[in-house]
TrEMBL record:
It comes from the Bacteria. The keyword Endoplasmic reticulum does not apply. One of its GO terms (biological process) is regulation of DNA-templated transcription. Pfam families: FaeA. It comes from Saccharospirillum salsuginis. The lineage of its organism: Bacteria, Pseudomonadati, Pseudomonadota, Gammaproteobacteria, Oceanospirillales. SUPFAM superfamilies: Winged helix' DNA-binding domain. This is Transcriptional regulator. Keywords: Transcription, Transcription regulation.
Length: 208
C-alpha cells in the first residue's frame, strides 16, 4: 500500500491522533506525515480539531471524514438491503428471522471450531478476532486488567444491520456462545448507536 493508504487505514483503526503519532506508526517523519495529512484534507478525506491538554500549545488531532470512511465501503450494501426488503415482503418478519438464525448457526459452528483449538484464554479471544477480520470487520484485541477488549473498526454488514437490528443482536449472541459459559461478553460501544466502532468487553465470569 502507499503511504496515503497506510494513513487512511491507520485513522480508520484509531481514535483521533496527531501527525507525529501518524508518522511514528507509518515510518514517516512528522513533517512527512503532516504533508500527507494536509493533502488528504484537501481531498476531503480527513479533518482535524484542536485539543488543549494542560499547558502548552493545543494538539491537532486528525481523523477520517465521512468521505474517508466511505473509502472502506460495505460490499454490495444496496443489493443486500434490497434483498432483505424482498424477504420481509414475501415471508414477513418471521422469514427474515429465520434467515438471520441460519447465518447465526453457521457462524457459531465456524467460531466454535476455531476457538476449540485455542491454547490459552488470550489465544481464544484473538482467534475470535481473527475470524471477524476474515469477515471484513478489521477486528483488534486489547488486553486489559480485567480481561480483553474486542474492537471492530469496520462493519461490512452496516447497511443490513441498519435495515434489520436483529443482525446485531445475533452477533452478540454468537460471541457469547463461542466464548462459552465461563466468559461474560458485553457490548460497550455500538456503531449504530452513535459509536465510532463496535467495542466489546470480554472477561472471566469468576472475575465479576
Amino acid at each position: 500500500m502507499s503511504a496515503r493508504d497506510d494513513i487512511l487505514t491507520l485513522l480508520k483503526q484509531s481514535t483521533p491522533i496527531t501527525a507525529a503519532e501518524v508518522g511514528q506508526a507509518t515510518g514517516l517523519t512528522s513533517m512527512g506525515a503532516r504533508g500527507h495529512l494536509e493533502r488528504l484534507e484537501r481531498d476531503g478525506l480527513v479533518h482535524w480539531h484542536e485539543e488543549v491538554a494542560g499547558r502548552g500549545r493545543p494538539r491537532r488531532l486528525w481523523q477520517l471524514t465521512e468521505s474517508g470512511h466511505e473509502r472502506f465501503p460495505d460490499r454490495h450494501d444496496n443489493l443486500t438491503v434490497e434483498l432483505l426488503n424482498h424477504i420481509r415482503t414475501l415471508f414477513g418478519d418471521e422469514g427474515l428471522d429465520r434467515l438471520i438464525n441460519e447465518r447465526e448457526k453457521a457462524q457459531r459452528e465456524r467460531y466454535r471450531q476455531s476457538l476449540a483449538e485455542a491454547e490459552s484464554d488470550d489465544d481464544k479471544v484473538r482467534r475470535l478476532a481473527s475470524e471477524r477480520s476474515r469477515e471484513g470487520y478489521m477486528a483488534e484485541v486489547i488486553a486489559t486488567d480485567g480481561g480483553w477488549e474486542l474492537i471492530e473498526h469496520h462493519c461490512p454488514i452496516c447497511a443490513a444491520a441498519e435495515s434489520c437490528q436483529n443482525f446485531c443482536r445475533s452477533e452478540l449472541a454468537v460471541f457469547r456462545d463461542a466464548m462459552g459459559p465461563d466468559y461474560v461478553v458485553e457490548r460497550e460501544e455500538h456503531l449504530l448507536q452513535d459509536g465510532q466502532r463496535c467495542r466489546y468487553r470480554i472477561r472471566h465470569r469468576e472475575s465479576e
